[in-house]
Design a protein that fits this description.
The chain is mostly helical and 251 residues long. Helices cover 71% and strands 5% of the residues. It is built from eight helices and two strands; from the N terminus they run H-H-H-E-E-H-H-H-H-H. Helix 1 runs antiparallel to helix 4, helix 1 packs parallel to helix 8 and helix 3 packs antiparallel against helix 4. The radius of gyration is 23 Å and the shape is flat.
């Protein structure tokens, strides 16, 4: 659970920056990364974001957990492009009666797409690591995201940790009773755990609804109120976007 906490998000160079400014910069860089045709700019963005994560002292394991799923998707994407797309054969093999051909242009195209994906994911990762969840929700509210969607996100974030703790209690109890000593018993125990979590999620949702109604909740959250922009942050962010735009143009 320590890798999901916000302890390492305190006291770094991006701490005091307004979440709305971070959103604007992240969206601008995302547009540049996605629209770029080549390798240079996405790789530069990835290196920059890795340096920012190191500066923020993000745990290496937390960063790898955040990037593990996109990396798996990238590897599959490169493999598919390499073997099933392109017109310039690089090699050809026959395996079990099947002809397997690797294409040079397909590999290059796959690597370019992979660079854009990794660059975009690294931008989102830095945004998440540098900004507390409540400030992210405040920024989404300023961007006119529907309040109902933000409300659902906040409750989901709150009860992820509650359900995770419930799951660990059930799992440890099952494990102490040899519930995972074989594949069959492990599957049965996992099914029981999943069913118990679903029931607990319904119970938590009902209890939360009743508690909030009794306290007069009307849908307005004080944390979604915004402060005025600071001129220094706006100027620095604009200069950063211009600098990234120049790199994007030169590339």
């Amino acid at each position: 659970m320590e890798y999901f906490s916000e302890d390492f998000r305190k006291h770094h160079m991006l701490t005091g920056i307004d979440a709305r400014v971070k959103f604007i910069v992240a969206i601008a860089v995302l547009i540049m990364v996605i629209s770029y045709k080549g390798f240079v700019f996405p790789l530069a963005v990835v290196l920059l974001n890795i340096c920012l994560c190191m500066k923020m002292k993000v745990p290496f394991r937390a960063l790898m957990l955040r990037l593990s799923e996109p990396l798996a998707i990238i590897l599959v994407l490169i493999l598919l492009k390499f073997l099933f797309s392109g017109r310039e054969p690089l090699f050809s093999l026959s395996l079990f009666g099947l002809s397997v051909t690797g294409h040079k242009d397909g590999l290059i195209e796959g690597l370019m797409i992979a660079g854009r994906v990794l660059g975009a994911v690294s931008v989102i990762a830095v945004l998440g690591f540098s900004t507390p969840f409540t400030e992210l929700m405040s920024g989404l509210s300023w961007m006119r995201i529907p309040k109902g969607f933000i409300e659902i996100l906040m409750f989901a974030y709150r009860y992820i940790f509650v359900l995770f703790e419930d799951a660990m209690v059930i799992y440890n109890a099952q494990k102490n009773r040899l519930g995972y000593c074989s594949v069959r018993r492990g599957l049965n125990s996992f099914g029981t755990l999943a069913g118990s979590l679903i029931l607990k999620a319904f119970d938590h949702s009902q209890n939360t609804t009743v508690a909030m109604v009794q306290r007069g909740y009307d849908g307005n959250m004080p944390l979604l109120r915004h402060k005025p922009f600071r001129l220094s942050e706006v100027v620095v962010s604009a200069l950063f976007i211009i600098a990234m735009g120049c790199i994007w143009t030169l590339g």
